[in-house]
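Run: sequence + nicotinamide-adenine-dinucleotide -> complex structure.
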Amino acid sequence: MRVLLTGGAGYIGSHTALVLLEQGHQVVVLDDLSNSSRESVRRVEELTGQEIVFVQADLTDPHATRAGLDDIAFDAVIHFAGLKAVGESVEQPTRYYRVNLDSTLVLLDLMRERDVTRLVFSSSATVYGDPQTPLIAETHPVGVGLTNPYGWSKAMNEQIIRDAAAAWPALAAVNLRYFNPVGAHHSGRIGEDPSGIPNNLMPYVAQVAVGRRERLAVFGDDYPTVDGTGVRDYIHVMDLAEGHVAALTHAEPGVQAFNLGSGVGTSVLEAVRGFEEASGRAVPYAIHPRRAGDLATVVADPALAFERLGWRTTRSFTEACRDAWAWQSANPRGYAG
Ligand code: NAD
Ligand code: UD1
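>> structure
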């Protein structure tokens, strides 16, 4: 297949591009580089020895998007493009809704015009809100009690895609609800390169280990968990990337939704220890109050993805730490050097 990756220069998109190329597909990346670097695409080309067609355009701009893709054919789309910082979404709700919703609307219109029917969308476990069960299955209610515009934008996108499929029965869409993506390609050539101070745990831990930041603030040690710190389902980004290819292959008319997670929970302190062991570096930390909007435990029931897509995680959290360290230690300032 020739696959258009919107936001394909970003963290998850670049790893997915690599897996697609390695499995014999062709890749077109459309990205405005608002949160990424052209260098990630170049490195995927270097790792695979194959070329990627790159288009720099803002997907929320229908004219720029059509002009950029004018003479470029594609058979399927993976839609990664969007804004993803939860705290920022609370401060800039209209910007988040505009980018995250307009990009999907422009894309769906373009797909209809071109009669491209296969779509995989980057959703998030955040659509489940506060979990009602220890493991979250796809049957869990979606869009109840969400606490931030980022989360709402994901739930709204899923609804937009369902409505589009109702009006266009050929559309074969898959909403992938990611749990917590971590790690990097084992080469250490591509990885997560957050701009500014990382919001998420693992990039912050990696920057402490490499000496870019002094200590980690652990947000709360009084949750009802194994050691009082928050528990999450961390998934190696290469497993996640492979999940996209499985979803593309199994897409069928209508809309499906799958969790991409491991089913294993890891606490903040367990994650810190895992990273210390993988890197051989100390990760100093201090306990701070809970972060507003945080949940105690968020872990996937990953059974449906295995049953329908034949996909499950094969890499451990320890491997994710080792690969994240390979990336962080070789690129202490990310793609900037
Ligand atoms: P990322 O920021 O690294 O990648 C997103 C890419 O989209 C970036 O390269 C950015 O430049 C591009 N982009 C943003 N706005 C654009 C626009 N208007 N036009 C064209 N390109 C645009 O983020 P990521 O971690 O790779 O996440 C990819 C997707 O997965 C996002 O939709 C995100 O919400 C979703 N997601 C991420 C996580 C996570 O923890 N990383 C978890 C759940 C869901
Ligand atoms: C965050 C987002 C969520 C998104 C997910 C995956 C929030 C409130 N939620 O979730 O919408 O889908 O990322 O990208 O931001 N932690 C610390 N210190 C830190 C950073 C985090 O102790 O400096 C803790 C958190 O309290 C949490 C765990 O580490 O218990 C994981 O945090 P994070 O990586 O931000 O992911 P989520 O909170 O799961």
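>> summary
The radius of gyration is 19 Å. Residues 7, 9-13, 31-36, 58-60, 80-82, 84, 99, 103, 122, 124, 178, 181 surround nicotinamide-adenine-dinucleotide (ligand 1) (CB under 6 Å).
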